[in-house]
Amino acid sequence: MRILVVGSGGVGDAFARIAVQRDFFELLVVSDFDEARASATVATATARRPGERRLVAAKVDASSSESVAALAREHAITHVLNAVDPRFVMSVFEGAFVAGADYLDMAMSLSAPHPDRPYAEPGVKLGDDQFAAAQLWENAGRLALVGIGVEPGLSDVFARYAADHLFSEIDELGTRDGANLVVRNELGEEIFAPSFSIWTTIEECLNPPVVWEKDKGWFTTAPFSEPEVFDFPEGIGPVECVNVEHEEVLLMPRWVDAKRVTFKYGLGDDFIGVLKTLHALGLDRTQKVTVGGIQVSPRDVVAACLPDPATIGPRMTGKTCAGLWVTGTGKDGAPREVYLHHVVDNEWAMREYGTQCVVWQTAINPVVALELLATGVWQGTGVRGPESFDAVPYLDLLKAPQPGGYGSPWGMEDR
């Protein structure tokens, strides 16, 4: 397996640090528009394994499918991993196809609200542009594994596991994510510093959330709707969660039988307040405006003014939890409710990998998936989500102690 990672930001960098410890690939090309950043990732990751020579750095323009394809061809790449923000999904996706490589991503092609009824009906849904090309990928005998981060990704694997091994009938698949993370400045004061790309966060949180119900299909609601308090494990505790647009709702119903599918995220009042303010001021817009004769995107300005998520790890404390809450009828015919979850402590992630917990938790999942693809345990063609594959080998490999596995346990609570 010869892998091209497009993007060496927080997740791309964490991916390299995790993958370098595994033997399933022969080449890993870490690429970025800023080649110096890609080189820094290669140097840091390579230093984790004495004698390592499989990693190289390269420059790429993620907005250009031709640039992606050319780099993939240059290195005879077999698998392209998209680790840049969602606005570049289609160019990387198309570049991989043109180059004859398989493809993986952790976020899918962008949505567009319904022009007349944005808070009732979906317009262009997340992933629609990619699923429109599914037949092309299948005809070519090639795989595009979409949404294989932590969410979407691990939560979708949990959905497959629940359907196959825990439930005879599922009422709701509800992704529920929360954390008790705090970031402080040099003076020890708590500051607003999202642990993931603010560009992506704005996209997810201010777009109309999507819900799926068996008798209605996909429909939308208002941002931050249906608040509920969800109790997260391992000391995180109760967090108010709200509806947010996310890929799980667009993926799970395609392969898993359930009556309802939702995604709710524990944002907190302060975070929601900041997002609402950005929206009210028009600072969430991606369309460029003229400032002093220069064309700039307001959202890009916001992102430039906030700390880089890849750099905040040393100033962050707490844990992050991603998981799937499932209700329905158990295999024994009795009502059942479970929460399948994966928790990462920031102190542990910083100590063991030198990267903050949110990007580490996202990055480990495509590494696991690529290993299963490299060994032939997972196989397939077309555009497919994680829930279309057998969950057991994935969860076993994730949880098994190193060096055989990844030593990252997941848990399950009956509630």
Query: How many DSSP H or I helices?
Result: 14
Average pLDDT, rounded to a whole number, is 95
Q: What is the SS-derived class?
A: alpha/beta
Quickly name the level 1 CATH class of the largest domain: Alpha Beta
Helix content: 25-40%
CATH topology heading of the largest domain: Dihydrodipicolinate Reductase, domain 2
Q: Based on DSSP secondary structure assignment, what is the total number of beta strands?
A: 20
Return residue spans where pLDDT drops below 50 for at least 5 consecutive residues. none
Give the N-terminus to C-terminus distance in angstroms: 42 Å
Backbone CA Rg: 20 Å
Strand percentage: 25-35%
Give the tally of structural domains: 2
Shape designation: globular
Q: Describe the biggest sheet?
A: 9 strands, mixed
CATH architectural group of the largest domain: 2-Layer Sandwich
- Could you give me the name of the CATH homologous superfamily of the largest domain? Dihydrodipicolinate Reductase, domain 2
